[in-house]
Amino acid sequence: MTEFNDTIGIFPGDLIIKTAIELAIDDMRKTPWVIDDVFRVLIENPLLAKKYGAKEVARAREFILNQKIPVYLRHRVDKQDFPCVTISIGESVEDKDLATLGDLSVIVEELDPSDIGKTIKFIIPPFNPVSYDKTSGIIEVPEDIEEYLFINAGMMAVDPDTGNAFEIIEKIAPHSFRIQAGADLPKQVAVIPNFQLYKARRERAISQETYNIGCHTQGDPSTLIFLHAVVKYALFRYREGLLEANNFQLSRLRSTDLIRNDAFNIENVYSRWVILSGQVEESWIKTPMRIIESVTLSDGDATGELKQGLKVISQDAPEGVEDECSPWITIDEE
After folding, report:
1. Of 172, 215, 289, 290, which residue is the least packed, with the fewest Cβ within 10 Å?
2. Cis preceding linkage at 174, omega within 30
């Protein structure tokens, strides 16, 4: 069982199975000895060799090399040719026994803003510093720039024209911050976040799925044995490279009996189905979010009302506090 591949998103089973069968047919036509290997039991088993032997293997080779074998996704509205292979999904049922609360996974992706069309804005748009002391690296910000409140160490002071950036080492009250001393500062400076990216959690679900793969020939029903062998070879050959690599795990095959199929409204059409079942893990990405770089707390406004910040709530309110949802002082600075 291979590891979970978090790059596939929703499992396109029909297309993956179609690709596997088409690749297998190409394999056999480019390297015909593969056909001999698929039907080798007809030669190597003494009893089968007497009845079928190399002659039957030659028939299989002639059928696979010379017949056009299209692979269709049901249901086509135009004419179907024979022989052919059809693919349809039987069912896809989410496995509640393997579900997790909130579809959580441990996978968190980092996303470039340009890839998702979500530009990261300036913390402080380009401004002219009040002063800059090159020997200390201290930059004074105009007092009317309210966004100064959100500056924090680790953010970057950047030249908006060239993109050259200087890490903010320290925030200095009331309206200054310090970068590395000796830096040549441009006339205008902007402040950008330290993390120029978004993060998004990838969620996942596990389903049990089945696919019905029909093998159809017209005329000689014995050729259906050859086509059925080609389909089984394809699903075994590419089980690891296409199915398991794309999160279709624990796959199992079962086949139905050969029947005369009147559903095509054509005479002498014979069909046999291969039913592929397995467990598929699918994933999707949540809304991209910014990384929190700074938290600013406030004591309240002139009236003493708490406008922003934290309220410390306890199930056991102190004496004198009737409403347990009211804020109270938890540390007495006196």
Report:
1. 289
2. yes
Radius of gyration of the chain (CA): 34
Alpha helices in the chain (DSSP H): 13-30, 33-38, 41-44, 46-51, 53-66, 113-116, 223-237
- The model's pLDDT over 27-63, given as tens digits with 9 standing for 90+, comes to 999 999 999 999 999 999 999 999 999 999 999 999 9
80/75 Cα distance (integer angstroms): 10
Q: Is the pTM of this model over 0.85?
A: no
d(CA 277, CA 209): 6
Beta bridge partners of 178: 138, 170
Instruction: Please give the full DSSP string across 24-88, using - where no structure is assigned.
Output: HHHHHHH-THHHHHHTTHHHHSHHHHHHTHHHHHHHHHHHHHHS---EEES--SSPPPSSEEEEE
On whether the CB atoms of residues 176 and 191 are closer than 8 A, the answer is no
Strands 71-73 and 84-94, sheet pairing: parallel
Peptide bond into 75 cis (omega under 30): yes
> For residue 223, with 0-12 CB atoms within 10 Å meaning exposed, 13-18 middle and 19 or more buried, which class applies?
buried
Domains of the chain: 13-98+205-285 (3.30.70.1700), 121-195 (2.40.30)
1 burial (CB, 10 Å; 0-12 / 13-18 / 19+) is exposed
C-alpha span between 83 and 66 (Å, rounded): 11
DSSP state at residue 239:
I
Instruction: List, for residues 203-244, the tens digit of each pLDDT value.
Output: 889 999 999 999 999 999 999 999 999 999 999 999 999 999
